Amino acid sequence: MLELENLTYREFLESENRDEYLFASKYAKQYTDAIDIYGVGNIYEQPFGFVKDVQFDLETNQLSWDNLINFICQVSKKDIKEIYNESFLRVCQFRMYLINNIQALLDAEKKLLTSEASEDEQQAGLGLFENLGIFIQTDSLAGGDVLKHSEVRALPYSKCLTKLALNKQLKDYQDNMNRIINNKHS
Fold it and tell me: Which of 31, 40, 94, 118 is the most exposed place for a label (fewest CB within 10 A)?
């Protein structure tokens, strides 16, 4: 019988066969409850850089247990040794909290920041920028000044998202205005 009740994260890491624990962490109700164990609060108020790092790992399926622990240390201000002695259950619950909240942010970004590419944009090679999404957002917020990227990464995500949404709305407005003017003059 698998003993999960008092399992620490360290014991999980040191176990020879993690598959049973991983199965339990994926399907057992108590392990899939999304709980803010570490008091992070509203993810929208976390630093833009932190949110984007987690987002990148989720989008590229790189949210390893090691990366998760590093993220927990960043937001909880706890030492890695403290996290290793936490219960595996608590780590799993926070993992679900983080995943669910970052996924909600991704959904919000898709609604606020994306639009259908025009045929002209596609022909011009808009797809060339797909792999640079997070960098492009950071660079846009920094006004194209790479020396300001660190400052942008420290800003609350909510402010950055609002600014990116404003930039998109202004671009959409300008595109529409240009189309109207071009139609009047043709």
Answer: 118
